[in-house]
């Protein structure tokens, strides 16, 4: 599969979810405060942040910003970076218009001891790029201490977007941040060693994201860390989602995995894959440790090269899904099909369902998930039953 095919898959997926089409000029946080314009009101981001108060917006004009501001605090002193002040929104003029390109960690978010609305912050409508010459930032956005951060309609690009020529570093990390939450909406991560890292008891909410040509899409680590992943696309990656020893229930829904070596890897974590589409990948589930449990429902698994499992063979139960070649007896939880899902154009990466697809209207409307002890609502806003796979028929 070539890169163009993968991008076609992304385009079709975005058409199915209005979140990919949000107006980048629509302010969603910071209204009611003061707008501080860079460079019209303040010559640099540093000066604007120094003047900003909770509720304010720092608005960046179109252009490339290479500035490096000394703000990050560490045990050894200070390092370079741009600090996003608590309660402030950093807003670009659009992902194609405003590009941040500092030499080190581009954003360092230090929220303070309590995650309250006044401590929350946002980054919107810009591109974060590691392509400043002769430099290699460790992370595009590094979140430290306790707080809440929303990142909306942003592109994270390592170098030129090719992992072979990039720095090998990461897009966004939520670390050393017990009880912190980051919400990532409608963002693209391209070319990084790691797209998003969530660890140290933090929470990641990811919706409408795209991970293209990354080594690792999303990594979740450490006991107490949690992830909710929805409506997202992974293409041309070695590893889609890696779930470490979190000891929590993790739900992944309405996601597309195309041409991934290992779409999902799990270790001591119970996972629900609901309404997901896996196409032309090496395997589906890779176990990083013994006996994690994975439930798959209302999904499509097609064009898998080496089979469903890898390494320790997780405890996996598949129901109400299409699986090419059928489901092994030990994993078959019933109502599965081995029929061509008849994608609109699988060869071009278009995984929407064709008019005669056997995946239409045959999904279940609820799922009893043992991990939470609750029935998970899988209904859709149609008169008929839900489709299988990530993209619901219009």
What is the compact description of this entry?
Helices cover 5% and strands 40% of the residues.
Helix content: under 10%
| CATH architectural group | 3 Solenoid
Please state the CA-atom Rg, rounded to the nearest Å: 21 Å
Number of domains: 1
Average pLDDT, all residues: 79
CATH first level: which class?
A: Mainly Beta
Total number of helical segments? 2
State the separation between the terminal residues, measured CA to CA. Answer: 27 Å
Number of strands: 36
Query: Structural class of the helix and strand makeup?
Result: mainly beta
Largest sheet: 18 strands, parallel
Beta fraction: 35-45%
Question: Any idea of the CATH topology?
Answer: Pectate Lyase C-like
* Low-confidence segments: 1-30, 69-80, 111-118, 133-137
Shape descriptor reads elongated
Topology:
Elements: H1 3-15, E1 35-38, H2 45-51, E2 57-60, E3 63-65, E4 70-74, E5 77-80, E6 82-84, E7 89-91, E8 98-100, E9 107-110, E10 121-124, E11 127-129, E12 139-144, E13 148-152, E14 155-157, E15 170-174, E16 181-185, E17 188-190, E18 194-198, E19 203-207, E20 210-212, E21 216-220, E22 226-230, E23 233-243, E24 249-253, E25 256-266, E26 270-274, E27 277-279, E28 285-287, E29 293-297, E30 300-302, E31 315-319, E32 322-323, E33 343-345, E34 350-353, E35 366-369, E36 374-377
Parallel strand pairs: 1-2, 2-7, 3-8, 6-9, 7-10, 8-11, 9-12, 10-13, 11-14, 12-15, 13-16, 14-17, 15-18, 16-19, 17-20, 18-21, 19-22, 20-23, 21-23, 22-24, 23-25, 24-26, 25-27, 25-28, 26-29, 27-30, 29-31, 30-32
Antiparallel strand pairs: 4-5, 33-34, 35-36
């Amino acid at each position: 599969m070539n890169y163009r095919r993968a991008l076609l898959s992304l385009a079709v997926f975005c058409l199915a979810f209005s979140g990919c089409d949000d107006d980048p000029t629509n302010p969603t946080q910071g209204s009611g405060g003061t707008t501080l314009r860079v460079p019209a009101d303040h010559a640099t981001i540093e000066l604007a942040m120094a003047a900003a108060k909770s509720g304010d917006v720092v608005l960046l004009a179109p252009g490339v910003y290479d500035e490096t501001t000394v703000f990050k605090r560490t045990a050894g002193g200070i390092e370079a970076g741009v600090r996003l002040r608590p309660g402030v929104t950093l807003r670009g003029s659009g992902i194609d218009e405003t590009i941040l390109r500092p030499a080190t960690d581009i954003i360092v978010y230090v929220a303070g001891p309590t995650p309250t609305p006044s401590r929350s912050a946002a980054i919107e409508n810009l591109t974060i790029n590691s392509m400043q010459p002769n430099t290699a930032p460790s992370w595009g956005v590094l979140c430290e201490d306790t707080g809440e951060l929303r990142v909306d309609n942003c592109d994270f690009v390592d170098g030129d977007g090719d992992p072979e020529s990039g720095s090998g570093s990461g897009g966004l990390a939520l670390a050393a941040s017990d009880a912190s939450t980051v919400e990532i909406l409608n963002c693209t991560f391209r070319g990084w060693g790691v797209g998003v890292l969530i660890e140290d008891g933090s929470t990641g909410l990811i919706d409408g994201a795209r991970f293209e040509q990354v080594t690792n899409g999303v990594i979740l680590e450490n006991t107490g860390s949690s992830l909710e992943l929805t409506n997202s696309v992974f293409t041309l990656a070695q590893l889609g989602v890696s779930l470490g020893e979190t000891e929590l229930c993790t739900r992944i829904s309405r996601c597309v995995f195309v041409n991934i070596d290992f779409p999902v890897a799990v270790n001591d974590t119970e996972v629900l894959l609901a309404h997901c589409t896996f196409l032309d990948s090496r395997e589906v589930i890779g176990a990083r440790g013994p006996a994690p449990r994975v439930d798959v429902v209302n999904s499509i698994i097609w064009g898998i090269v080496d089979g469903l499992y890898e390494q320790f063979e997780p405890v996996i139960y598949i129901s109400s899904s299409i699986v090419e070649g059928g489901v092994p007896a030990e994993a078959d939880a019933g109502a599965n099909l081995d029929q061509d899902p008849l994608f609109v154009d699988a060869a071009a990466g278009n995984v929407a369902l064709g008019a005669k697809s056997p995946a239409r209207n045959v999904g279940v409307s609820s799922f009893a998930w043992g991990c939470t002890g609750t029935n998970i609502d899988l209904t859709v806003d149609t008169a008929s039953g839900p489709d299988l796979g990530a993209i619901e028929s219009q």
